[in-house]
Design brief:
CATH architecture of the largest domain: 2-Layer Sandwich
Largest sheet: 7 strands, mixed
Mean pLDDT: 94
Number of strands: 12
Shape: globular
Helix content: 10-25%
Bound molecules: biotin
Distance between the termini: 41 Å
Length: 275
């Protein structure tokens, strides 16, 4: 049974830390507008790399593309982490793929049905269970900080889901039929985030591409991608070393898509176009 309104045991999370840096400082809040907003302010005030903000609920949880993020209390994980990556401004967006990979790998520790939907949604059986919001603070060509905001639906029940998300979103608990230990999940997430982030900085994003593609649910699928102005249609071929999604259109031309919202034509149930 899921016990209602039990706060996350942040002391247990601190005691059980297996990372060198991520989560060495954790700011735990019962309620806030958005953990990303709190983390942005902490970064401006000099917060060190790996500083984490966790809230039990958010009154203005933010999603990608100006959407909101449903944040019912005591159910899920709403976590933001302060990064000071030594990368050039054009390379920073690739970190969103790294955070998505680490998050999907963490979900995969609970279920092999975890999948990545470019750019960084995590799905189980086609339903979104986690989303990433990356926000950068830069001056000219220098990245001051990047906030990686991660929302993972761990123990949300169908009743907690807003009407517009029914059938599209889910939670680990809904998928597995068992309550999820939020402290254990947060601890594993921080470990995987630190490992993949460090690897990316040391070896480059190309070193992570294979792991990312193995978890991708899009390869071989016919998709439409809306980048906010244009719509691209094609079959997903691969993720490139620079993080762009490679599509082949019906005329056989390759298209590189930098950002956007993917819609899978025919959903996830059908045969892939390449199978
Ligand atoms: C998405 O639209 O898929 C991204 C959702 C990101 C939600 C997380 S929850 C923690 C952090 N704080 C926010 O306001 N947003 C991110």
């Amino acid at each position: 049974m899921l016990r209602p309104d039990v706060p996350l045991d942040v002391e247990a999370l601190r005691r059980g830390r297996t990372t060198a840096c991520f989560g060495a400082v954790i700011r735990y809040l019962e309620t806030t507008d958005s953990t990303n907003t709190v983390a942005q302010q902490l970064a401006r005030d000099g917060a060190v790399e790996g500083t984490v903000v966790i809230a039990e609920t958010q009154t203005r949880g933010r999603g990608r593309l100006g959407r909101s993020w449903a944040s019912p209390a005591f159910r899920n994980l709403y976590l933001s982490i302060v990064l000071h990556p030594p990368v050039a401004v054009p390379d920073a967006p690739r970190l969103g793929l790294v955070v998505g990979l680490a998050t999907a790998e963490t979900v995969a520790e609970w279920t092999p049905r975890a999948a990545l939907k470019w750019p960084n949604d995590v799905l189980i059986d086609g339903r979104k269970v986690a989303g990433i919001l990356m926000e950068m603070d830069a001056e000219e060509d220098r990245v001051r900080s990047v906030i990686a905001g991660i929302g993972v639906n761990l123990n949300m029940t169908p009743e907690d889901l807003p009407d517009d998300l029914r059938g599209k979103a889910g939670s680990l608990r809904m998928a597995l039929g068992t309550p999820i230990d939020r402290v254990a999940f947060a601890g594993r997430l921080l470990a995987r985030l630190e490992a993949r982030y460090t690897q990316c900085l040391q070896e480059g994003f190309a070193a992570l591409r294979g792991a990312w593609e193995r978890l991708s649910c899009l390869t071989g699928r016919a998709v439409e991608i809306d980048d906010g102005g244009r719509r691209f249609h094609g079959t997903v071929c691969a993720l490139a070393d620079d993080g762009t999604l490679q599509l082949r259109d019906t005329a056989g031309r390759m298209i590189s898509v930098v950002a956007g919202e993917v819609t899978v034509i025919d959903g996830y149930g059908k045969e892939r176009a390449d199978s």
